[in-house]
Specification:
By secondary structure, this protein is α+β, with helices and mostly antiparallel strands. It folds into 2 domains: 108 residues, Phosphorylase Kinase, domain 1 (2-Layer Sandwich); 237 residues, Aminoglycoside phosphotransferase (APH), C-terminal lobe (Aminoglycoside 3'-phosphotransferase, Chain: A, domain 2, Alpha-Beta Complex). Helices cover 45% and strands 13% of the residues. Bound molecules: 2-acetamido-2-deoxy-1-O-phosphono-alpha-D-glucopyranose (GN1) and magnesium ion. The site of 2-acetamido-2-deoxy-1-O-phosphono-alpha-D-glucopyranose has 10 residues, from loops.
């Protein structure tokens, strides 16, 4: 079936009214397939929606994913009355998803006219990004995390991620381990420190919160004219988690001097000025709700998350690029090297980063 017919059928299932005008694929994200569809209502009004096919290799239990996303978006929407908010549409049976004939999993949400940034040097945008993710934490601080499924078990369990990496390196199914000996050795050498955040949680020192788990700057939608943050998207990994997971991943992505997969990985590193701006924005929202230990874990969490993601990219490279969509053969290797260069720089700067956290109110 042609894509436009497929998308039209999905829209019909979600009871979208009017005439299907067209669609465009949105190339963002490494995991799902995203389309913007345009409809014209009987009165001539044009309406646009986001239709997504969920990658069920990455998300083994997509129904649970939608359970989480629906509860969380509606909780936020109820608190942001009159403001822009994300909303998943329902089918006649009140479901937020459908399966097509080929067993593909589809969902549909409102389209929010906006711009996103994959990187920025703009201080205001960085502060707003930190504040948007902080606000997300804050708005969900009264949401019972136990109502959410752990849709990807052990998603940010760094010890488990590293265990998998070293086990796959030993099996070496694609004969690629020899080429990445240096990378594996570095990860082994920082293993204890990278695992510390997870260990602190295991020792009962860090509370479970509702976390977004993919706090990249490009998951924040901004108003094109006012440049105010409008909404946070990509709730696929909303789960119970640690505040450091959201903070750490946000910093990992937004403060890097280069893109996360830059082949010129020697240039990767954490821009401390950007770190300060993002952190001030984030803490302006969450300061009152964090425990002392959580606050103390923030700088460390950047290191943990960066090493963890490097090990995920490296593991995917070793097993033959099964999880992340790659755009060229060694893409996962470039991603790994870039994240490891970032991790090394973050490690050097940990004391300065924690001092910036401590200086925030
Ligand atoms: C994946 O597809 P995207 O960009 O939303 C991944 C994140 C990684 C990210 C790295 C479910 O997110 O954990 O940080 O790639 N999402 C999942 O670019 O694994
Ligand atoms: Mg994502």
């Amino acid at each position: 079936m042609e894509m436009k017919d497929k998308l039209r059928k999905v829209c019909e299932a979600f009871r979208i009214e009017g005439k299907f005008v067209g669609y465009e694929q949105i190339k963002a994200g490494n995991v799902n397939w995203t389309y913007k569809v345009t409809y014209r209502r009987a009165g001539g009004q044009v309406k646009q929606y986001i239709v997504q096919r969920v990658n069920t290799y990455a998300f083994r239990k997509p129904e649970q994913l939608m359970h989480n996303a629906d509860l969380v978006t509606e909780h936020i929407r109820a608190k942001k009355q009159g403001q822009t908010a994300l909303h998943y549409h329902h089918t006649q049976e009140r479901k937020t998803f459908i399966y097509d004939e080929e067993n593909c999993f589809w969902r549909l949400c409102n389209f929010i006219p906006s711009i996103t940034y994959s990187e920025t040097l703009d201080e205001k945008i960085l502060r707003q990004t930190g504040a948007a993710f902080g606000e997300f934490q804050m708005l969900l601080s009264d949401f019972p995390a136990t109502e959410l499924y752990e849709t990807i078990p052990n998603f940010h369990n760094t010890p488990k991620r590293l265990e998998t990496l070293f086990a796959d390196a030993a099996k070496d199914p694609r004969g690629r381990a020899a080429e990445v000996r240096e990378e594996l050795a570095y990860i082994a050498s920082v293993r204890e420190e990278a695992e510390r955040l997870t260990r602190m949680h295991e020792q009962g020192r860090l509370p479970i919160r509702v976390t977004h788990n993919d706090t990249k700057i490009n998951n924040v939608l901004f108003d094109e004219n006012t440049h105010e943050a409008l909404a946070i998207v990509d709730l696929d990994t909303v789960m119970p988690g640690l505040v450091g997971h959201d903070f750490g991943d946000g910093i990992r992505f937004a403060t890097n001097f280069v893109a996360e997969d830059c082949p010129d990985w020697q240039r990767a590193g954490c821009d401390l000025e950007k770190f300060r701006q993002f952190t001030e924005g984030f803490l302006s929202q969450v300061s009152g709700m964090l425990t002392i230990e959580e606050r103390r874990s923030l700088a460390l969490s950047v290191f943990a998350i960066t090493v963890e993601l490097a090990s995920r990219f490296l593991d995917d490279y070793l097993v033959g690029d099964l999880y992340f969509n790659i755009h060229y053969p060694d893409h996962n290797l470039a991603r790994t090297r870039c994240q490891l260069a970032m991790a090394k720089d973050v490690h050097r700067k940990l004391p300065q980063m924690q001092a910036i956290v401590d200086a925030c109110r």
